[in-house]
Amino acid sequence: MTPAPGSPPPVLDLGHLTRRYGSLTAVDDVALRLPPGARHAVIGPNGAGKTTLLNLIAGTDRPDRGTIALNGTDVTRASTAKRSRLGIARSFQQPSVIGELTVLDNIVLAGWAHHPKRRGAWRSPSRYRLHTESAGRHLETVGLAHLAHRPASELSHGQRRMLDLAAALAGDPRLLLLDEPAAGLTDGDIGRLLSILGALPESVAVVLVEHHVEVVAQVATSVTVLAAGRVLVTGPTGEALAHPEVREAYQNAVPEPAARTPEAITGSTEARG
């Protein structure tokens, strides 16, 4: 479907996206179009192709076939650096932090290429202060401001996940890709994660890969279900999660609409396919 005249282009437009590894087709003819500000989840059993799909969008992998457009710009062959400059950021299944740097300097480094006054900042105390002030605000967002000057190597798993999220936000993304952000988190950390994602501005679109079905139900307004690399169903969250094959894959652990509150997330059981 072509956008109506005068309407903004999709923030993400995937056309017939395919990625093969030898005889294995990890992503098979996937098409997806998301409007600006979308809150979209990609779910499915292990091996369904979810992380590969994020890799293709982020540019760390290249498709064998198909197209990827960001806000109307074809980025199918663009580098990860160019995609980052155009507004794509991501977190990873394993938090990507530099243990030798302080928590604050991890965020300064992550946001460096996106800051308008980065030139000569290392030699200019006033410009460097702008970087650190911006980084500090992102640490406050994820609840790590009190650990700003600690080495990142001293953080717990949950704190590293929050640092990874802050690093992704440091680039002021237009499209935020999250790969299992709730994995291994405590109930309290999941509550914080939900609050952070719920407070994101509408200018930031989110594509979330997550096994924790309760988190999907809380964050996403639409869902794509992958199975063996192909799209099983795409639609509003309630409809997609109620699909019989989806309920079977998640062992009927799909929440009812009334359960979708931050309080209901606490203590919930993580369902994995």
Write up what this structure looks like:
It is globular and about 50 Å long. The two termini are 32 Å apart. With 273 residues, the protein is an alpha/beta fold. β7 (175-179), α6 (187-198) and β8 form a beta-alpha-beta unit. 33% of the residues lie in helices and 22% in strands. The strands form 2 sheets. The protein has a 6-stranded mixed β-sheet, with helices on both faces. Strands 2-1-4-5 form a 4-stranded antiparallel β-sheet, covered by helices on one side. The longest helix has 18 residues, at 125-142.
Write the layout of secondary structure elements.
Elements: E1 12-21, E2 24-34, E3 39-43, H1 50-58, E4 65-70, E5 73-74, H2 80-86, E6 88-90, H3 103-111, H4 125-142, H5 157-169, E7 175-179, H6 187-198, E8 205-209, H7 213-219, E9 222-227, E10 230-236, H8 237-241, H9 244-249, H10 262-265
Parallel strand pairs: 3-8, 3-9, 6-7, 7-8
Antiparallel strand pairs: 1-2, 1-4, 4-5, 9-10
Helix pairs in contact: 3-4, 3-5, 4-5
